[in-house]
Design goal:
With 492 residues, the protein is mainly β. The protein contains 5 helices and 35 strands. This is Apocarotenoid-15,15'-oxygenase.
Length: 492
Amino acid sequence: MQTTRSHQEISLQPKPYTIEDWRGENRSLKQEFAYPIEDVEGEIPTNLKGTLYRNGPGLLDIFGRRLHHPFDGDGMVCAISFSNGRAYFRNSFVRTEAYCAEGLAGRMLYRGVFGTQKPGGWLANAFDLRRKNVANTNVIYWGEKLLALWEASHPYRLDPKTLHTLGRETFNGVLHKNSPFAAHPKIDPGDENREPRLVNFAIKPGPLTTITVYELDLKGKVVQQHDHKIPGFAFIHDFAITPQYCLFFQNPVSFNPLPYILGFRGAAECIKFECDRPTKIWIIPRNPTQEAQVIDADPCFVFHHANAFEQGNEIIVDSICYETFPAIDHNLNYEEIDFDSRPPGQLWRFHLNLQTSTSHRHLIHQRANEFPFINPAFIGKPYSCVYLAAAHQPEGDAPQQAIIKVDPECGEKQIWSAAPRGFVGEPVFVPRTPIKGSEDDGWVLTLVYDATYSRSDVVILDGKNLEKGAIARLHLKHHIPYGLHGSFTSDV
């Protein structure tokens, strides 16, 4: 029987970080840069070729007014391009309509989903239900288009070389203005019988929630689209795919819109976890002529999935689970976060039996972790390793200071840590080109904020053995605010 220590016991242990160091990354980067990275420790692999794109909030204040939460910040895309053992850095803000409007006005014009309010109190915010598309969550290259994504609205297209904003992307009119397009598309690698596809979804929540599934071919054309109605409010950030199915975890939450409508809270602050309700897992066939199925699971909250695959009569799904929703306290600034009181995200495996419509789950790895990333060639297939951003300490919640590699079958792990003064972002796995060997034959790229020098580094790790240490550390000339998701393409 597994036992865990209480939050109080964990909080008494020495911490491998200080809150002051962690806060150093939580500040705006208002400049846009373009320069070769010349300050390098180690050697950049000469056969690492392509561009790492990464998105996240770049502005944490608007004309001096601090945001209530970084997720309300305007998106800033970074590009780190590799060729012949050298690297080049570029960053640019996604110039959405809202970003440009606030720039012209010289002041904050929009509320934020995560609690940021316009000046003037609740009277200035009441009944203003406009959504500011911050385009800050992910960035992906597909169909020769670079897309900045935010799940509650349309994508923005960027020039893949200069990062200049080219405008809204509608996929030839399939999306209308403000049509949602989720920030976690999955690239189905295909096989000898199927070409690769980009699979994504959209959520329109309400008393009856609509899930729309999109599939795009290699040219970026929407070749399949189908809607599914599910009862109840659904907050779904990510999903998982297999060759036959899309899997959506309907977290057991309720939404009371009144404080949001009346101008007292952001929309995300009106979500409440319901611990007496199951998590409902919707299994939607990618063939739109087939019926969806729903399976109940133990109550938990999931932001991100690592992978899923079919195995006999079961579907296996590996996900980062929280015992409850990590709610946002409107009375606290996000920099006042108490990590010791928060539930950690942990890697769990779900077994979904399609014949009996039952599920069970078990814990794969208990260290607090998030941002799972696997070899892209194994999406939707059986796999043997996942890379995650994790806490340095083995128990309790904490800032992400380490990259871990976990075998989901047996829980074996490797760890590379930037503690005590380093804080990591999402690990992005880049397979060697062409792939010559094992699933982990490649590199892990991540951004690390170094509080000692108040700057960020691009760190390259060996995918086979994280514990060898950094192959190379590319020192940037500045910091990058704590970010969200990204991707790598060898096409740019």
